[in-house]
């Protein structure tokens, strides 16, 4: 799915993407034309397809939904809305919940920065210079 198509779907369904709105995953998949194997088709597949083929099909379906939901999340984030999923329901957080999610982002960023500093400080300097990464190491250490 192209970015322009996804934006068009979100715009056409803007009433579904307001604060506090809930979208069942089946509705989300229909909205973005995501194919999902029905239970009946899945039963037939288990009898005729290999385990690897079934796994590949399920992974492909999952990746398509993740791609669509990630785009929606990014698009809504730019509009001050947090998009999350709990079990089989997508939800747009209320404005009052945004600070909680922002704090989670900050905590994750701080933890990632600590790990980056540990990694760069533990990297032997002579190896970093040899591989031409001394500039990026110096940058990370300064943070």
User: What portion of residues is helical?
Assistant: 55-70%
Please list the strands of the largest sheet in the order they lie side by side: 1-3-2
Percent strand? 5-15%
Q: Mind telling me the C-alpha Rg? A: 21 Å
Low-confidence stretches: none
Query: Largest beta sheet, briefly?
Result: 3 strands, antiparallel
* Topology as a string of helices (H) and strands (E): HEHHHEEHHH
Number of helices: 7
Shape: extended
β-strand number: 3
Question: Secondary-structure blueprint of this entry?
Answer:
Elements lengths: L2 H10 L9 E3 H7 L7 H10 L2 H27 L5 E4 L2 E4 L5 H25 L2 H6 L3 H9 L1
Antiparallel strand pairs: 1-3, 2-3
Structure characteristics:
single chain; 143 residues; mainly alpha; three-stranded antiparallel beta sheet; 7 helices; extended
What does this structure look like?
The mean pLDDT is 86. The chain has seven helices and three strands. Helix 1 (3-12) crosses helix 4 (51-77). By secondary structure, the chain is mainly α.
